[in-house]
């Protein structure tokens, strides 16, 4: 029998739901934990644009008291060389809530969406320095398929 994930010192199962604009402050704080500090207003604007799209999902995990303790952002895309897929482009769970099932529940919901829309695969990239994720994703059945370098350039006007 599986035990429900519990919040830090608080009874109740972790639940997952679609993100709302009102989640922006909590999502911003968690983004900072992930290493991407952002203001709530910036996140609210991004959420507004993302939530209006059919090809993207933002989910939040709530602890037993209704506080947001994690989020996942997934997007569907068609790649010429590899087909239709859903990519988990962001996932973070509050440090105090890790190893309590929130991440697993978020990924399971993203995978369910991928099945519903007929995706051929679910893909996730993980920064080499995120050692916890290198154990987490294989525990869910994900297999490392390549190592890559990411290049970034800001477009000029």
Key terms for this structure?
five-stranded mixed β-sheet; alpha+beta; single chain; 4 helices; disordered N terminus; globular; Aminopeptidase; 157 residues
How does this structure look, described?
- It is a single chain.
- The protein has 157 residues and is α+β, with helices and mostly antiparallel strands.
- The protein has one domain (15-139): Aminopeptidase.
- 30% of the residues lie in helices and 24% in strands.
- The chain has four helices and five strands.
- The protein has helices spanning 24-34, 40-51, 102-116, 131-139, and strands spanning 15-18, 56-62, 68-79, 83-93, 121-124.
- A five-stranded mixed β-sheet has the order 1-2-3-4-5, sandwiched between helices.
- Helix 1 packs across helix 2.
- The chain is globular and about 45 Å long.
- It starts with 14 loop residues before the first strand and ends in an 18-residue tail after the last helix.
- 29% of the residues are buried.
- The model is unreliable at 1-11 (pLDDT under 50).
